[in-house]
Amino acid sequence: MDFRLSEEQKALRDSVRDFAREVVAPVIAEHYEQRTFPYEIIRQMGKMGLFGLPFGEEYGGMGGDYFALCLALEELARVDSSVAITLEAAVSLGAMPIYRFGTDEQKARWLPKLLSGEALAGFGLTEPGFGSDAGGTETRAVLDESTNEWVINGAKAFITNSGTDITALVTVTAVTGIRPDGSKELSTIIVPSGTPGFIVAPGYSKVGWTASDTHELIFDDCRVPAENLLGERGRGFAQFLRILDEGRIAIAALAVGLAQGCVDESIKYAKERHAFGQPIGNYQAIQFKVADMEMKAHTARLAYYDAAARMLAGEPFKRQAAIAKLHASTIAVDNAREATQIHGGYGFMNEYPVARFWRDSKILEIGEGTSEVQRMIIARDLGM
Ligand SMILES: Cc1cc2nc3c(=O)[nH]c(=O)nc-3n(C[C@H](O)[C@H](O)[C@H](O)COP(=O)(O)OP(=O)(O)OC[C@H]3O[C@@H](n4cnc5c(N)ncnc54)[C@H](O)[C@@H]3O)c2cc1C
Fold first, then answer.
1. Does residue 1 form part of some domain?
2. Which of 330, 365, 366, 376 is the best mutation target for the ligand 1 pocket, counting ligand atoms within 8 Å of the beta carbon and taking the most?
3. What are phi and psi of 206, to 5 degrees?
4. Does residue 364's CB lie within 6 angstroms of at least one atom of ligand 1?
5. Is the predicted pLDDT of residue 134 greater than 90, yes or no?
6. Which of 82, 128, 140, 281 sits at 20 to 30 Å (Cα–Cα) from 174?
7. Of 213, 234, 255, the domain-final residue
8. In what residue span(s) does the Acyl-CoA dehydrogenase/oxidase C-terminal domain sit (predicted)?
9. Residue 7 has what pLDDT?
10. Please, is 58 exposed, middle or buried when counting C-beta atoms within 10 Å of its C-beta (0-12, 13-18, 19+)?
11. Is 211 in the pocket of ligand 1 (CB under 6 A)?
12. Of the residues 218, 234, 250, which one is the last residue of a structural domain?
């Protein structure tokens, strides 16, 4: 067992770290405040190859692996989570389903532009009435045999990267039939942006991740060719379970980045801020807070490294991915709260990065499976 990074992994980590500090940090607060999508940053991330990290070179990928993606996400989130979640959703929710389940034609059509970052894709699973209970999906797709098209009707809620100027498509889960036992047959269908009947609602007014793109989507007799079915008909449930299992490792990495960013900012501030005649960092009460924050970031990092290692070795990793996501999101919220506390009143002011970290931390306990859902997965995997 060796959790030390290879020279190549260190080089990737360091280049994303430099990019986050030099390119993202100076401008992201303005985007966050104005709630604007950081197109220029995304363009540069594309040029660096970040959107192609875990994909094969045949479609323009970097030939890396999922762990490389996680390292990049951690470093980005150490500075800003809006940019990190844009990458996470684009890769693990947007491009990955096509890479894993698509036909050769679908891959050739979509992957080169998604992997270069020139275009983004969203993944539409959640609905206004169903999130954790995704099997409850009500969006329907009916095959019109006269035109050989799927006719989609329904709505999806909170879909990341679904409404940017460079969004090329969303993959949506829909009920395509009822099985003999009465259960729903779920399938996944690719819906290109601009398809008539595919309506992107105005962006939400979010508490955090305000420089990322999230929309409700409405499908009103939206027609796409039958060949836009992703993988086999009726495999939608299994497909999204696989995508979410992997995605949890990526979200854990993102959460570790935020937690580590809280440590960075707390140390800096504690050395500068004076109270009762000396830097607050001289007080053991502050030092202990920072030590606990570092301990939490470190243990959560080991948890996601372990889950990623199991996944890449082809071993079962469902439980470890859920543990990593549950632990990392919990400690990210803890660290954001403590970092804000260390900053005192200034921690409540938007001009300090910790205010952004605090606002961005809570969603980590909700998105891609709530903490309750992670506990359900862990308990089920333990045979309960
Ligand atoms: C900013 C943002 C971006 C998102 N991006 C995407 C995206 O790109 N694609 C996508 O498909 N979705 C996306 N989501 C949706 C997200 O994954 C869901 O919000 C999440 O899965 C929870 O679903 P829900 O909001 O419907 O909550 P619910 O499922 O309604 O849950 C409400 C509460 O009940 C609890 N609960 C539910 N069932 C149980 C149970 N059996 N036992 C105990 N407790 C339970 C939950 O844990 C939660 O605390 C995004 C959400 C946000 C806010």
1. no
2. 366
3. -95, 155
4. no
5. no
6. 82
7. 234
8. 234-382
9. 97
10. exposed
11. no
12. 234
